[in-house]
């Protein structure tokens, strides 16, 4: 079915001009929704993102055409004389918040995020360039196993990409969702396998979604379990020296002090941890090196005793993300940049757009329904006033799916158009006119 003549004019009440207070980098003027001959369309307000990220940087806008993006990707990096670089793989169970954290580190949303698992379908790179340092962040699909992949009909890439990312990483962040009662007490076998396969790569434990914890005491227990009581070669001794039990923030009720890291002036534990573990060092004993664990060893392991740091944060609201970012910048080693400083992601503009629309479909359609929607881009053009005109067809296998996707009176699809359009404006920093059309795949 074609949704002809079901125009929804969301923009009627929206401002037609960028307010004077808009940041100077907003160059395009949002146009009005001008109606369409088919499906649903929307034109939305102004980019709403923060003008700079936690380190006071302005992340570069994303190219709006594939040609421009290719030119940027192929161009020589504009690196300074003594460049530094760090490639970071972010791994963890599906839904741990990997893409949310990537977006926060980048300062702009370029990776899709949703409440449903397996939002990220393949690896993608994000780039943070800060002064002489480039962080290359490898967002990966949630680690899963072949059985689950088969059950959910996941692409091959979803099994292999996290491993591929590890091969290219200088450091790995292992993300754990501390609000998930089922998974938070132990690292999954896939994560442990990944870590033990690459024992030479320094690893950092990141406890995410701390904002959702009512009782911060649990963090102490989790740290002990997920690290097997050892961090950076030092034994942690749990102490119950909690000072307060605030639940509203990721900020520490108590802190971990790590007396044994003389080279780290600004100790990350002090800044980022919610738990205080009074810690007894293994003294002058040598820091144990990670070994290659076999499947039998891994079977009995719940945590990884070779993390070099622990961070506790709330990626969604950006709490403590700047602390982690600063730490990552400090870990960078001398090396050539991979990208020009105006590159924010290796994804093409079309990939970003597909992912953003898919994210909304995942968010608003129930159960397995979103996974069967096929997206076909029918138009990607620059309009007469420099706005980006995008039209996409959404093919669904059944009429019932189409009814769900459109929603009563077009409510669902118009919401998808509106939110995706706003996100696209925030990514490309220009006016975007998005049109979606739903059809049953014949
Ligand atoms: N409350 C809260 N929610 C969070 C936080 N970080 C992420 N989320 C939410 O968790 C859900 C999953 O986040 P994603 O970033 O898509 O997770 P992911 O690990 O990339 O997921 P996959 O792509 O399935 O592997 C989304 O609904 C996020 O909004 C956080 O710090 N606090």
From TrEMBL:
Residues 242-252 have a biased composition (Low complexity). Belongs to the TRAFAC class TrmE-Era-EngA-EngB-Septin-like GTPase superfamily. Era GTPase family. Residues 139-142 are annotated as: G3. Residues 118-122 are annotated as: G2. It is found in: Mitochondrion inner membrane; Mitochondrion matrix. Residues 208-211 are annotated as: G4. This is GTPase Era, mitochondrial. Residues 42-83, 242-294 are annotated as: Disordered. One of its GO terms (biological process) is ribosomal small subunit assembly. Residues 92-99 are annotated as: G1. One of its GO terms (molecular function) is rRNA binding. CDD domains: Era, KH-II_Era. Residues 84-335 form the Era-type G domain. Probable GTPase that plays a role in the mitochondrial ribosomal small subunit assembly. Specifically binds the 12S mitochondrial rRNA (12S mt-rRNA) to a 33 nucleotide section delineating the 3' terminal stem-loop region. May act as a chaperone that protects the 12S mt-rRNA on the 28S mitoribosomal subunit during ribosomal small subunit assembly. It comes from Patagioenas fasciata monilis. Keywords: GTP-binding, Membrane, Mitochondrion, Mitochondrion inner membrane, Nucleotide-binding, Ribosome biogenesis, RNA-binding, rRNA-binding, Transit peptide. SUPFAM superfamilies: P-loop containing nucleoside triphosphate hydrolases. GO terms for cellular component: mitochondrial inner membrane; mitochondrial matrix. The keyword Transit peptide applies.
């Amino acid at each position: 079915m074609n949704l002809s003549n079901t125009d929804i004019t969301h923009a009627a009440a929206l401002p037609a001009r960028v307010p004077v207070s808009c940041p100077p980098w907003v160059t395009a003027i949002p146009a009005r929704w001008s109606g369409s001959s088919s499906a649903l369309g929307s034109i939305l307000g102004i980019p709403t993102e923060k003008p700079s990220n936690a380190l006071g940087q302005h992340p570069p806008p994303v190219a709006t055409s594939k040609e421009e993006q290719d030119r940027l990707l192929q161009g020589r990096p504009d690196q300074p004389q003594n460049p530094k670089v760090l490639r970071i793989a972010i791994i963890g169970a599906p839904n741990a918040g990997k893409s949310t954290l990537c977006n926060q580190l980048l300062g702009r949303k370029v990776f899709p995020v949703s409440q449903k698992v397996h939002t990220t379908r393949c690896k993608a790179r994000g780039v943070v360039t800060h002064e002489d340092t480039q962080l290359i962040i490898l967002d990966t699909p949630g680690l899963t196993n072949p059985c689950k992949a088969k059950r959910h009909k996941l692409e091959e890439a979803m099994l292999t990409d996290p491993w591929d990312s590890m091969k290219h990483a200088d450091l790995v962040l292992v993300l754990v969702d501390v609000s998930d009662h089922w998974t938070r007490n132990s690292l999954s076998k896939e994560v442990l396998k990944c870590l033990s396969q690459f024992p030479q790569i320094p690893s950092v434990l990141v406890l995410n979604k701390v904002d959702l914890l009512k009782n911060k005491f649990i963090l102490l227990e989790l740290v002990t379990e997920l690290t097997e009581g050892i961090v950076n070669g030092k034994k942690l001794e749990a102490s119950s020296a909690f000072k307060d039990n605030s639940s509203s923030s990721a900020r520490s009720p108590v802190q971990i002090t790590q007396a044994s890291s003389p080279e780290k002036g600004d100790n990350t534990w002090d800044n980022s941890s919610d738990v205080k573990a009074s810690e007894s060092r293994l003294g002058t004993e040598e820091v144990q090196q990670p070994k290659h664990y076999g499947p039998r060893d891994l079977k009995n392991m719940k945590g990884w005793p070779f993390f070099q740091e622990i961070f506790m944060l709330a990626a969604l609201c950006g709490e403590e993300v700047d602390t982690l970012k600063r730490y990552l910048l400090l870990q960078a080693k001398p090396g050539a940049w991979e990208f020009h400083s105006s590159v924010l992601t290796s994804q093409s503009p079309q990939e970003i757009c597909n992912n953003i629309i898919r994210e909304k479909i995942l968010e608003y359609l129930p159960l397995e329904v979103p996974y069967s929607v096929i997206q076909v881009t029918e138009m990607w053009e620059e309009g007469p006033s420099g706005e980006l005109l995008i039209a996409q067809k959404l093919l669904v296998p059944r009429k019932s799916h189409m009814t769900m996707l459109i929603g009563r009176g077009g409510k669902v699809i118009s919401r998808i158009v509106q939110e995706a359009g706003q996100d696209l404006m925030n990514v490309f920093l220009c006016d975007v006119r998005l049109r979606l059309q739903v059809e049953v795949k014949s």
